[in-house]
Amino acid sequence: MILDTIKKEINEFETDTIQLTDGLEFNQKDLIQKIIYYYNSQFLTGSTDDQGDRKYFFNLVKNPCDVATKAIDFDTKNINILTASGGTELKTWFLERDLKFWMKDQSFGKVLNRLFYELPIFGSVVIKVIDGKPYFVDLRNFAVQQDADILEKASYIIETHIYNPLEFQKIAKEKKWTNWQGVKAENQIKIYERYGEDGEEYKRLIMAEDGTILDEEVVEHHPYWEFHFTKINGRWLGVGRVELLLDPQIRTNELINQQVKSSYWSSLRLWQTRDEGVKRNLLTDAVNGQVLQIDAEITQVDMADRNLTFYQTEINRWLTHRDEMAFSHEALRGERLPSGTPLGSAQLAIGMAGAYFDQIQENIGLDVKEFLYKVIIPQFAKENSGEHLLRIAGEDLDKINSLIIESRAQNKLFEFLTREGKLPNSIQFNLIKGVIAEQVKRGKEQLVKIPASFYKDVKYKIDIVITGEALDTRIRAANLFAALQAITADPTLLTNPIKKKFFSRFLEQGGISPIDFGLFEEPQGLGEVVQKQVGGGISRPSMPVAPMPGQVEATL
User: What residue spans define the domains of the chain?
Assistant: First the structure.
């Protein structure tokens, strides 16, 4: 029975341990529970010890997680689209801006922020895609074959959903589950969503805890996308900062609480005497100025703690060990360096830590890149397949205005040639461009009409570059200067078709848009540009101009 199989797999996941190597065992559920407790400064055995005293948690795992998040983080602004062979720079330029506006509307930046926040904590993050939308999976309710390298190789994937009766009723109607009214439960309803082989077929099965099958379907692939901070062989779950620092955390807590216990004793005031006649509490019975007549002197018991230096030295040793293991030194945490630290040593530590995190960021970036290719961009293309408007403002507005001016000027040039039978002189042509510029450069933004299926061009493909795109400003300035020198030495780079293509690729690889230099191949079918007047609605185009083949369509 399939329900028995599901319960057996869940029990195996929760209780069985896998052997990574001789003497090294692992259970994913136990580790996730420990990570949640430690990150939130809680003991697995409770907040009091055997004597009823409070235990204090000295959290040293949270800060390294924050440092790692800051080191590997990137945003939607670091997602660039480059022109591939056979593509057009201008179409890529429009696509990149359209995609980034769409990702902003979809709050994709929040998805990236949460991804980079959780990765250093748990070591792995799972995102579930439902109808093109990403949702984060709670690893506490996510059972997978523990020794699978990746989800593709797991014999089973089971996600547990827990609903109250009202939530279940709503979800069942939305998903159009069958037999949902026969599910019996009182306070909560547990639903299993399983993906795995069933005979020779790969199936998605949704079943209630009582065995009622709500939905069953043969699918090609599960809807989960996995991201890992670092990986080790023999298990699916990645390695995060909390797991890496378990021993420093446990030992530091022991030292801190031993020191706390010691402080209780050192705060006591005890006296001792050999006189048996003294049988009273000096703290409550003695009066200020009273003279005691006894047969032996009364002396205070020395309760001073002489191990303070040991405690501090031992704790500092474990804190140093933490920083070395997690690359979370003072400079990376934004703290002041110890007095006397040479500047070169600080720069070397930052450089080495940066190189370490760059490698991790690159691996994560490759996974995010695949996620964008197969989930985000197809969903963008689906939602933007029809005709729509693209808002252009700021620096981009200057670029599109230049394109419009050049396009309209060429149209006017051919009109002049047809009407007068000759080309205009330089003064006349500059006057024409000046009049067009005055008409075009109005308002603080423009709306470009993108035709239906504008991005479905088989002649080009997109390449998303995430890692390494946050170019240093000095490198970008050097690239600009190198481009200027190249143009000065060989002006044909802007006119010769073959050189122009090579020069465009050179600029793109250096983080510079070829359109900034007027290097673009104009795509067919781009819609008209609608100017938006300040303080009013979208103005109606008043004097349409038929574009020449290969030019940007535009109207005054």
Answer: 1-36+124-228, 386-531
